[in-house]
Amino acid sequence: MMKASKADVNDDAKALGRVAFVDGRGDLPMIEVTTPWSSAEIYPHGAHVTHFKKKDEPPLLFLSQCSRFADDQPIRGGIPVIFPWFGPREGLGQHGFARIKTWDLKEFIPAADGSVTIRFSLPACPEASGYPAFTADYIVTVNRDLALKLVVTNQSKDREFVFENCLHTYFSVSDATAIAISGLNGVSYLDKVASFLEKTETGDAIRISSEVDRIYQNTTGTVEILDSRFGRRIRVEKSGSASTVVWNPWITKSQQMSDFGNDEYEQMVCVESGNVAANSITLPPGATSTLEVRLSSEPLK
Ligand code: BG6
Question: Ligand 1 centroid vs 151 CA: distance in angstroms?
């Protein structure tokens, strides 16, 4: 384990050829990670993984060509960390403040198996002042797979901490209309495109041919994305998560988003793991919640 000041990283890990600090887009600091199997890019802004690629595979994550890279703006693509609320909140921005804060880099751990683990902590910020005292750590491990862990502890002695969380993962796909998303058959969902009407998934696979914006509830299972044109299967395994959100903005919404290309909906799908809406978390004083997501992929045989 090594302490993670910028100098330490550059002196020690850079020597190992695994971690480097560079200027990312919009002059935001960025961490480049290289392992024997993969590469990744992570911005302390939002503790945001914007890129993960296994050798001999296309990138796993979609990143919009039109994304903003600025201190007070979320990045469009990669894995936004959504916390402490999901969706709109009256008088406040959508999807919480964690994704627009610059997280503190606490440590990096280049392990003997070739993996690199980086731990971030959400800094104290005015937006958190209405909440009970809490800490939020985000631990990213880059290896053959990409493993993510969001650990929230209620530090208050006498107040419950009620929050939502979500790792809002944008996957890069060959053609959104040609993929099949499985693992949600029989699960009930709120259909945001139909005014939050509650429905039940009836098909083995979800296919995209119009705007999709669904909160699947009370579901802890693994979701897979079958992408035959890219010749790969993506697996989203999770624990500490009771909700899965599936989102593709399709044509009109893409045109309305200023930080998203008009045609980019064809190249992405979000499969998001977290605890939102009725699955929001109520954390008693002193308790900890851990949301873990493992993203892996394999070529189709
Ligand atoms: C999804 C929501 O999780 O995020 C959608 O279900 C929303 O309703 C999408 O449009 C993108 O949100 P934002 O704030 O990043 O534009």
Answer: 22
pTM: 0.95
Distance 90 CA to ligand 1 centre (A): 15
Query: Per-residue pLDDT tens for 201-223?
Result: 999 999 999 999 999 999 999 99
Ligand 1 atom 1: residue of nearest CA:
247
Q: Using a 6 Å CB cutoff, which residues line ligand 1? A: 74, 94-95, 168, 192, 213, 245, 247, 272
The domain at 17-299 falls in which architecture? Distorted Sandwich (2.70)
Tell me the pLDDT tens digit for each residue of 180-196: 999 999 999 999 999 99
d(CA 143, CA 296): 10
Terminal Cα-to-Cα distance of the chain (whole angstroms): 38
Catalytic residue among 48, 164, 168, 201: 168
Kindly report, residue by residue over 222-236, the tens digit of the pLDDT. 999 999 999 999 999
Supply 136's token pair.
């939020």
* Among 218, 228, 241, CA closest to 169: 241
Q: Write the burial class of residue 157 (CB in 10 Å: 0-12 exposed, 13-18 middle, 19+ buried).
A: exposed
Residue type, 190: L
168 catalytic? Reply is yes
Q: What is the pLDDT of residues 253-266, one digit of tens each?
A: 999 999 999 999 99
- HEC secondary structure over 140-153: EEECCCEEEEEEEE
- Examine the pLDDT at 8 and tell me if it is beyond 50: yes
